Amino acid sequence: MKLRVENLANIKEAEVEVKNLTLFVGQNSTHKSYMAHIIYEFLTLIKEKPEEKEILFLLFPKSKFLIETIIERRDIKETNRKFTHVIFSFENKRTDFNNLINHMYFLINTLFTKLINKSFNNNSNVLEKIFYENNLNLADLFQENQYEIEIFNDTKDVDDDLIIYMLLSNILDKIFLYFKNNLSSYSGIKYFPASRTGFILAFDEIVSGLLRDKYKGQSSSARLTKPTIDFITNYSDIRSNKLDIKWLSIFKHDNPDNKKLQTLLIDFLQRNIIKGSIEEEKLDDNYKNFYLKTKNNTRLDLHLASSATLETLPFIVFLKNTEDISKTFFVIEEPEAHLHPKAQIQMAKFIVLLSNSGAKVLVTTHSDYILNEINNCIKLDNIEKDNEFAISKDDVSAYLFKNEKTKTTVNKLEIDKFGISNDNFDEVLDELLDRSDELNERILNKND
After folding, report:
1. What is the pLDDT of residue 245?
2. Domain for residue 20, yes or no?
3. What's the rounded Cα separation, in Å, for the pair 65 and 106?
4. C-alpha distance across the termini of the chain, in Å
């Protein structure tokens, strides 16, 4: 899947291709998280069609010109007490189709842009335009030179505005169904923000603030982006067992393959990073808590656990409560946060393991250790393809986000059998070594 944006904060234009494993690398404040945010929201919008009121907002008055172009070429086929059938006939199929198709693309892009901007919870727009890879031929939605819609008679008057609205709404339904089946086959999308430790420790206070703001109209300092709110909401649902109740009504039996993946991935994190296990306890019938059980069976409540444990805990908790890991899209910001370089290398292996499980993974990172270990996994694919940590270069895409004066550039990084080509970290290391050599020389000269 390819996405292109225009005027995203300081990014004038950028195009990214999302593969099994997608990496955004670069310094701070280069808008890597903004791009990850947009991809998450785009896939969420495809998976969960926007509310009717959002679509209604766009359909009028922007669709008035359609009344002039096609409203005269319609026929009310049949009206009964329940439904009105309207057939649209296109005298000049090429012209009429072009008008309608171009208008539908305009509506969809406007809808996506509006809702994505809204998800940033910012006073001004962050994104100007978004474009997506699209293989849908809207003409396939029509049969010959006509298109039929059915309107439920919940009102006595079926006027031109209602007919146009129902036409566009009907076509939008089919377009979103196509998107869902072709652009986003994921059963779930999980987002892990950079500040995981803070959200876990301050969870109860943040949630209470969001609830006060939403339901009681009281001011709250918890102003967060929608992906972050989704993360907190999902974590809340897990702690309150809401997900378990929902799944019981959907899944009649356990998925042994998913259980196997859960065990593999969770055991890897617990064994190699937190050196213990995340356990849960029921506080009452509707709520549970988590704590760390160390190797010597000591219990540590979360506020006493290491930051590495708190950063890793959401992965373990969400994986345990993911119904189909192999069909889930994971967006992970700064997986290296609070981790020792050795643990960062293990986290890189986990990311590859997760990608190899069938999931799609998008990562934003500043870590040379993460990037170099993923390079090792790409190299390993040339030697031991069956190794669980080997990943094909064809399954990886990587982009360098870099500040240049007043704008940010996004450049695709070349990937070959030796891994991802990137001198971004080499430049920093060279600067550090040059500075060290200069100071060493000054010390020697002073002593002389």
Report:
1. 44
2. yes
3. 13
4. 63
The tokens describing 133, both together, are: 């890879």
Q: How far apart are CA 188 and CA 261, in angstroms?
A: 16
Contact call for residues 37 and 227 (beta carbons, < 8 A): yes
- The Cα–Cα gap between 359 and 188 comes to 10
Q: What is the mean pLDDT of residues 75-98?
A: 68
Tokens representing 390 are 């080997």
C-beta separation of 33 from 195 below 8 A: no
Q: Which helix (H) or strand (E) holds 89?
A: strand 83-89
Contact 408, 11 (CB under 8 A): yes
Reference 40, options 180, 238, 190, 196; nearest CA is: 190
Same domain as 162, residue 234: no
Domain boundary among 404, 420, 443: 404
**130 lies in the same domain as 10:** no
**pTM for the complete prediction?**
0.85
- Report pLDDT digits (tens) over 169-210: 887 887 787 777 776 677 789 999 998 888 888 877 676 665
Tokens encoding 94: 């090429």
The residue range of the domain holding 195 is: 2-30+186-404
Q: Residue 388's pLDDT is what? A: 94
Q: How far apart are CA 348 and CA 371, in angstroms?
A: 8
Domain count for the chain: 2
Dmax (CA) for the chain in angstroms is 104
Q: Is there a single domain that holds both residue 293 and residue 234?
A: yes
Q: Please give the residue that has the higher pLDDT: either 369 or 241.
A: 369
Using CA atoms, how far apart are residues 169 and 191, in angstroms rounded to an integer? 30
Which backbone phi and psi does 161 adopt, to 5 degrees? -60, -45
Separation of CA 234 from chain center: 14
Mean pLDDT for 23-38 is: 94
Rounded CA gap, 130 and 256, in Å? Answer: 39
Are residues 191 and 171 both part of a single domain?
no
Q: What is the pLDDT of residues 244-297, one digit of tens each?
A: 444 444 444 568 889 999 999 999 999 999 999 999 988 776 788 899 999 899
Given this model, what pLDDT does residue 250 score? 44
pLDDT above 60: residue 67: no
